[in-house]
TrEMBL record:
It comes from the Bacteria. Residues 12-66 form the HTH lacI-type domain. SUPFAM superfamilies: lambda repressor-like DNA-binding domains (SSF47413), Periplasmic binding protein-like I (SSF53822). Pfam families: LacI, Peripla_BP_3. Residues 13-56 form the HTH cro/C1-type domain. Keywords: DNA-binding, Transcription, Transcription regulation. This is LacI family transcriptional regulator. The lineage of its organism: Bacteria, Bacillati, Actinomycetota, Actinomycetes, Micromonosporales. One of its GO terms (molecular function) is DNA-binding transcription factor activity. Gene3D superfamilies: 3.40.50.2300, lambda repressor-like DNA-binding domains.
């Protein structure tokens, strides 16, 4: 389609969009800023005018007026290798990104584990660069959330804090999900149920081990870090020390996949000799042999809730810390 604007010179303005759409300048501004205070008919007219004219909002000018960057940092406290290897991260990033795009906001993805990466991260995360930050995979008593709050940068974390500090977070019911999985194994008549833990400097790792102990007490435990190799190493240790094991609860599907590999090497049949249940219900669970029973956590919903809470903080709608814990569901497949 050829228009007078496309034949002319210069960048389309907000006023020209308003003229084309037959609305006021303020209405165009509200549509561009993602405000809900616009009628569907006016919103459609403005969006059509934007497409016809090829209008692109001037982000720098908007920042000067609104004191907002329209950018949100998504910070992953893991190595790049783990970020790309574990399905959890891809699923939650996709959910977060889709909500931010719908709000015309930019997502800045930051992966930080090494000291030099952390130094750059702390220097970047200010109100001059981002309106808020979503924090994933925090380890231990990390001081960054408190630092960001002191700077006035709104934050929401994935996972319950491991210490007593305050903060807004969204989590799955890790303890309840683990408890349900281990109770199921007990109900199936399994006598010696072992656990492979996740990283115990993370809330999810602690809670999933607590759920196991709620049912078994002081049963056989081997420590992992959520990775496949750590699950394989833990399964090897368990079989060497507790050859009578007839069931395993692994705190992630990645570790469960590693455990299945070692059980196969030892000639143990799954589930006839040893039943296995993982956690996450990731794509991995559908491709193991046999298919993996797992605890499903609502990862996409977690991502959407994190963004909702962060935007409410940024918009001044949330004055107090919020704690949201979403339910899990046990999914039974061939491994149990």
């Amino acid at each position: 389609m050829t228009t007078d604007r496309s034949r002319g010179a210069g960048r389309p303005t907000l006023e020209e969009v308003a003229l084309r759409a037959g609305v006021g300048r303020g209405t165009v501004s509200r549509v561009v800023n993602g405000s809900a205070q616009v009628s569907p008919r006016a919103k459609q007219a403005v969006e059509e005018a934007i497409v016809e004219l090829g209008y692109v909002p001037n982000r720098a000018a908007r920042t000067l007026v609104t004191q907002r960057t329209d950018s949100v940092a998504l910070v992953i406290f893991e190595s790049g290798e783990r970020f790309f290897a574990e399905p959890f991260f891809g699923r939650i990033v996709q959910a977060i990104s889709s909500v931010l795009v719908a709000r015309n906001m930019q997502m800045v993805l930051m992966i930080a584990q090494a000291p030099e990466e952390r130094a750059r991260l702390e220097g970047y995360l200010t109100r001059q660069h981002v309106d808020g930050a979503l924090l994933l995979s925090l380890h231990g008593d990390d001081p960054l959330p408190a630092l960001l709050e002191e700077r006035g940068v709104a934050t929401v974390r994935a996972g319950r804090p491991t210490y007593a500090e305050r903060g807004t977070f969204v989590d799955a019911d890790n303890r309840g999900g683990a408890r349900e999985a281990v109770a199921y194994l007990r109900q199936q008549g399994r006598q010696c149920i072992a656990a492979i833990t996740g990283a115990l400097d993370m809330a999810a790792g602690i809670a999933r081990l607590d759920g196991y102990r709620d049912v078994v007490g002081d049963g056989p435990v081997a420590f992992g870090d959520f990775s496949e190799e750590s699950g394989a190493a833990a399964m090897h240790r368990l079989l060497e020390h507790y050859p009578q094991i007839d069931a395993v609860f692994a705190a992630s599907d990645m570790m469960a996949a590693g455990a299945l590999r070692i059980l196969r090497q030892y000639g143990r049949r799954v589930p006839e000799d040893v039943a296995v249940i993982g956690f996450d219900d990731s794509v991995i669970a559908m491709h193991t042999d046999p298919p993996l029973s797992s605890v499903d956590q609502p990862i996409a919903e977690m991502g959407r809730e994190m963004v909702r809470l962060l935007l409410a903080k940024i918009d001044g709608e949330e004055e107090f810390d919020s704690e949201i814990v979403l339910p899990t569901q046990l999914v039974i497949r061939g491994s149990a």
